């Protein structure tokens, strides 16, 4: 999916609490909401695992989407049959989605917060 289409969805969840971001993605009509939701769930799971490894308790309700951005991935070039025996190029665009979640308490304490990030190609 092209980065331009995914950015429309990503802009809606930036800075929102994770629970509100889940709700926005669940009821969005955009097809890009599915991969963004998967990446958000991965980021939350990474944050929980990281906090458990450090021996801390993490409340998912305290997490918010601190950073989220979409970069262009490689473009697959394909050909489709066109009129009069010609071939028309098709570009299948891909994107890299990055979601960083952070807890409100860590964000207020300073820049060295407990941020956890997830990426999906």
Strand content: 25-35%
CATH domain class name: Alpha Beta
Give the biggest beta sheet. 3 strands, antiparallel
State the low-pLDDT regions, or none.
Answer: none
Care to count the β-strands? 5
**Using only CA atoms, what is the Rg?**
18 Å
The N- to C-terminal Cα distance equals 10 Å
Alpha plus pi helix count: 4
According to CATH, the fold-level topology is Ribosomal Protein L22, Chain A
CATH superfamily: Ribosomal protein L22/L17
Description:
Helix content is 39%, strand content 30%. The protein is α+β, with helices and mostly antiparallel strands and 121 residues long. It has one domain (3-120): Alpha-Beta Complex (Ribosomal Protein L22, Chain A). A hairpin with a 5-residue loop joins strand 2 and strand 3 (87-92). The protein is elongated.
What are the defining features of this structure?
121 residues; 4 helices; two-stranded antiparallel sheet; alpha+beta; Ribosomal Protein L22, Chain A; three-stranded antiparallel β-sheet
Give the topology:
Blueprint: H1 3-13, H2 18-26, H3 33-53, E1 63-72, E2 76-81, E3 87-92, E4 95-103, H4 104-109, E5 116-120
Antiparallel strand pairs: 1-4, 2-3, 4-5
Short description:
The protein is α+β, with helices and mostly antiparallel strands and 121 residues long.
